[in-house]
């Protein structure tokens, strides 16, 4: 069977059984769950060191209240990192090249930030719709534009990841031949 | 996930104390296939059994085109060789790094304990020194007591001397008064005697005495002339 360059982006099937779930969950198998030992084996130590590094990088600029986002952001970062890097190997499928997965990741997170901002500080979040220092006649048009950009943001995030990964992996395949 | 190790649910699960981590991980051959597989096949097929199985499987997949050779195969071979080379070269360094992380963690906790012990030991030594100082205080108090006694003694003697001097002054005054009085009486008496004698010398007596003196002088002058 002749493989074209786009075959790496088709959802994997084995004898008619969709393997998409397996391919999404496979990267999680590579990280052993941390057990409740204090001095762990080498793999767990390295993994914990990496997690600490990433979490520190993410959380140091934030205030104390922002630290409750630490778990979801760090785990999201590690998941995407692993999925994307593993997709570079041959015979591996990258789930993030599918628009469905990226939209599933982007839309809830975007909606969560929007609703959290609206609930906790409604005036400030609505105030973000207008950049500072705009001349008065432009205000209605600018508010429309900002609202549209806000609503489009989820779509933009999802499509951005998809496009980047697809293009990247494809480009690597093209360059390597 | 091995929190605890028990063989196939035969014994009770014990959560603490955790059994220690084994020194080495499971033995693998060629980094992928555990030794247990080779041992499992050894009784039936001997040493070359698993290798024959592997070769047979590979050739079967290749011949029946279950495993297709395409561009990905070449890519897989190259990437695999690079990965193996990287692991062989940097594997020990990464392991040493992981070990160092663990060592630092344990050393930090140990250092807390050691510093606490050291602080307590210095506290004990200082306490002993304070006790020694308290013992030495006895001598200090004795010497201070001697000092104070000496001061008191000196002060008492000084005051005694002052008293003696004062009393002597008063007694000297009394003695001087008596002497003065006697002197004055004596002088007065002498003056009175002289005055009375001078008064008692009448003119008649005066002439007689002068004439006698002249006669005496003449007589003396005669004898004196003779001597010369």
From TrEMBL, chain A:
Location relative to the cell: Membrane; Mitochondrion inner membrane
UniProt keyword Transferase present: no
Reactions that this protein is recorded to catalyse: H(+)(in) = H(+)(out)
KW Nucleotide-binding (keyword) present: no
Chief place of localization: membrane
Membrane-related topology note: Multi-pass membrane protein
Annotated Pfam families: ATP-synt_A
Transmembrane segment boundaries: 12-31, 69-89, 101-118
Gene3D superfamilies linked to this entry: ATP synthase, F0 complex, subunit A (1.20.120.220)
Keywords noted in UniProt: ATP synthesis, CF(0), Hydrogen ion transport, Ion transport, Membrane, Mitochondrion, Transmembrane, Transmembrane helix, Transport
Molecular functions per Gene Ontology: proton-transporting ATP synthase activity, rotational mechanism
Source taxon at top rank: Eukaryota
Cellular component, GO annotation: mitochondrial inner membrane; proton-transporting ATP synthase complex
Subunit note: Component of the ATP synthase complex composed at least of ATP5F1A/subunit alpha, ATP5F1B/subunit beta, ATP5MC1/subunit c (homooctomer), MT-ATP6/subunit a, MT-ATP8/subunit 8, ATP5ME/subunit e, ATP5MF/subunit f, ATP5MG/subunit g, ATP5MK/subunit k, ATP5MJ/subunit j, ATP5F1C/subunit gamma, ATP5F1D/subunit delta, ATP5F1E/subunit epsilon, ATP5PF/subunit F6, ATP5PB/subunit b, ATP5PD/subunit d, ATP5PO/subunit OSCP.
Family: Belongs to the ATPase A chain family.
Protein name, entry field: ATP synthase subunit a
Organism this protein belongs to: Fregata magnificens
From TrEMBL, chain B:
Main location class: mitochondrion
Known function: Subunit b, of the mitochondrial membrane ATP synthase complex (F(1)F(0) ATP synthase or Complex V) that produces ATP from ADP in the presence of a proton gradient across the membrane which is generated by electron transport complexes of the respiratory chain. ATP synthase complex consist of a soluble F(1) head domain - the catalytic core - and a membrane F(1) domain - the membrane proton channel. These two domains are linked by a central stalk rotating inside the F(1) region and a stationary peripheral stalk.
Gene field: Atp5f1
Organism: Fregata magnificens
Protein name, UniProt field: ATP synthase subunit b
Family classification: Belongs to the eukaryotic ATPase B chain family.
Cell compartments where the protein resides: Mitochondrion; Mitochondrion inner membrane
Assembly notes: Component of the ATP synthase complex composed at least of ATP5F1A/subunit alpha, ATP5F1B/subunit beta, ATP5MC1/subunit c (homooctomer), MT-ATP6/subunit a, MT-ATP8/subunit 8, ATP5ME/subunit e, ATP5MF/subunit f, ATP5MG/subunit g, ATP5MK/subunit k, ATP5MJ/subunit j, ATP5F1C/subunit gamma, ATP5F1D/subunit delta, ATP5F1E/subunit epsilon, ATP5PF/subunit F6, ATP5PB/subunit b, ATP5PD/subunit d, ATP5PO/subunit OSCP. F-type ATPases have 2 components, CF(1) - the catalytic core - and CF(0) - the membrane proton channel. CF(1) and CF(0) have multiple subunits.
Pfam families: Mt_ATP-synt_B
Source superkingdom: Eukaryota
InterPro entries from the UniProt entry: ATP_synth_Bsub_B/MI25, ATP_synth_F0_suB
SUPFAM superfamilies: ATP synthase B chain-like
Keyword set includes Membrane: yes
Transmembrane segments: none
GO molecular function ontology, one term from the record: proton-transporting ATP synthase activity, rotational mechanism
Keyword annotations from UniProtKB, A to Z: Acetylation, CF(0), Hydrogen ion transport, Ion transport, Membrane, Mitochondrion, Mitochondrion inner membrane, Transit peptide, Transport
GO cellular component terms given for this protein: mitochondrial inner membrane; proton-transporting ATP synthase complex
């Amino acid at each position: 069977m002749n493989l074209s360059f786009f075959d790496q982006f088709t959802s994997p099937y084995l004898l008619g059984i969709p393997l998409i779930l397996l391919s999404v969950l496979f990267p999680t198998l590579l990280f052993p769950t941390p057990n409740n030992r204090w001095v762990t084996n080498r793999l767990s130590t390295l993994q914990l060191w990496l997690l600490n590094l990433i979490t520190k990088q993410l959380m140091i600029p934030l205030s104390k209240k922002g630290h409750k986002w630490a778990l979801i952001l760090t785990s999201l970062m590690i998941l995407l990192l692993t999925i994307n890097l593993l997709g570079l190997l041959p015979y591996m499928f990258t789930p993030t090249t599918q628009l469905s997965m990226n939209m599933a990741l982007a839309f809830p997170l975007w909606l969560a930030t929007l609703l959290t901002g609206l609930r906790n500080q409604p005036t400030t979040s609505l105030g973000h719709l207008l950049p500072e220092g705009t001349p008065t006649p432009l205000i209605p048009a600018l508010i429309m534009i900002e609202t549209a950009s806000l609503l489009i943001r989820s779509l933009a995030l999802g499509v951005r990841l998809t496009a980047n990964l697809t293009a990247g992996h494809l480009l690597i395949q093209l360059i390597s031949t | 996930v091995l929190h605890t190790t028990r063989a196939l649910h035969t014994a009770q699960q014990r959560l603490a104390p955790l059994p220690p981590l084994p020194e080495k991980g499971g033995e693998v051959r060629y980094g992928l296939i555990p030794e247990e597989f080779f041992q499992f096949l050894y009784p039936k097929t001997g040493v070359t059994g698993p290798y024959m199985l592997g070769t047979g499987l590979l050739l079967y997949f290749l011949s029946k085109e279950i495993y297709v050779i395409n561009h990905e195969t070449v890519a897989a071979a190259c990437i695999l060789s690079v990965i193996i080379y990287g692991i062989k070269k940097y594997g020990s360094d990464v392991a040493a790094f992981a070990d160092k992380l663990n060592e630092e963690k344990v050393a930090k906790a140990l250092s807390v304990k050691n510093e606490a012990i050291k602080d307590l030991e210095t506290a004990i030594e200082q306490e002993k020194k304070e006790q020694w100082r308290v013992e030495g205080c006895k001598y200090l108090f004795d010497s201070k007591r001697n000092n104070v006694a000496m001061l008191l003694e000196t002060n008492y003697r000084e005051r005694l001397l002052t008293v003696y001097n004062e009393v002597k002054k008063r007694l000297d005054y009394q003695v001087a008064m008596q002497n003065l009085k006697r002197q004055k009486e004596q002088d007065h008496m002498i003056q009175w005697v002289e005055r009375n004698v001078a008064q008692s010398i009448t003119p008649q007596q005066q002439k007689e005495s002068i004439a006698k003196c002249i006669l005496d002088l003449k007589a003396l002058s005669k004898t004196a002339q003779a001597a010369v």
